[in-house]
């Protein structure tokens, strides 16, 4: 069984993890506070922060796991999707380390890793299952037939659900990142106070741009009548927005699960940490007789543990990336 070092650098979190025999021994994450003052991730600043954080994070992950570099069997890294500069920093670090150690290199798809985070700890879903992957940049419905056989059957045609949370939260004047703040305030509000449109798409696709626009015009109209409208109604506004996003997600999830006769339902991605979505999914599961799987919080947001889990499956399948030069026959020459 392999010992794998994994690196995640797709956006603004720098992370390294070590997996030994399919078990996570360490999962270290360095966050970037520099983006808060800009109200969103600045790609150039994210790339520079990755350069600063990568070596300390990797060193800490190896030390915590009690693993020396020369005992690694492979190095995994996030190949994409993500911010180009951030991916380049992590990818070049991983390639250089693998080349220096003469170890196999494993390129991991970030979205596949979010799904396979379910296999880090018990309980684990049985194949095949349906996964709703919800993050700041992606919203997908995926049929998962095996660790390396997945089919996207639905996805957003515009904004992702996480983006809808953050952008509507920004309209309400909440600090960045807005999604968690909106979720917290929503617990105190009435989710049916302000009806907003649920994005209705054919098939299993999603759309959230209409909600963002609807909220913008609604706030503009109400604030014109009462400048204190947002502050006076903030919990109800947050609850109503969150309710609309969740209902949009559940509508398509319900249809896909019914059409494909799947009862094992998984939730993945950073938005899986949203308390309203987690509860709504559990409530829906009781009605539909689903069995629901949600990873531990640390494996929902961007982290290298999920990259290590995916690299583990790819290692077993002999799915290695190309490298510049090596005497190891498992590495292909370009």
Tell me about this structure:
The structure is a single chain. This protein is α/β, with parallel strands linked by helices and 334 residues long. The chain folds into two domains: 3-115 and 300-317, ATPase, nucleotide binding domain (Nucleotidyltransferase, domain 5), CATH 3.30.420.40; 125-294, Nucleotidyltransferase, domain 5 (2-Layer Sandwich), CATH 3.30.420.40. The chain contains ten helices and ten strands. Strands 3-2-1-4-5 form a five-stranded mixed beta sheet, sandwiched between helices. A hairpin with a 4-residue loop joins strand 1 (3-8) and strand 2 (13-20). Helix 1 packs parallel to helix 2 (84-101), helix 4 (161-171) crosses helix 5 (178-186) and helix 4 runs antiparallel to helix 8 (234-259). The longest helix has 26 residues, at 234-259. The model is unreliable at 324-334 (pLDDT under 50).
What's the overall geometry?
globular
Lateral strand order in the biggest sheet: 3-2-1-4-5
Total domain modules: 2
Radius of gyration, in Å, reads 21 Å
Category from helices, strands and their pairing: alpha/beta
Count the helices. How many?
Answer: 10
The CATH C-level class name of the largest domain: Alpha Beta
**Number of E-type strands:** 10
**If you consult CATH, what is the topology of the largest domain?**
Nucleotidyltransferase, domain 5
By CATH, the architecture of the largest domain is named 2-Layer Sandwich
What is the share of helical residues?
Answer: 40-55%
- CATH level 4 superfamily of the largest domain: ATPase, nucleotide binding domain
Query: How many strands, what sense, and barrel or not for the largest sheet?
Result: 5 strands, mixed
Order of helices and strands: EEEHEHEHEEEHHHHHEHEH
Which runs of at least 5 residues are low in confidence (pLDDT < 50)? 324-334
The oligomeric status of these chains comes to single chain
Mean pLDDT: 92
Distance between the termini: 27 Å
Strand content bin: 15-25%
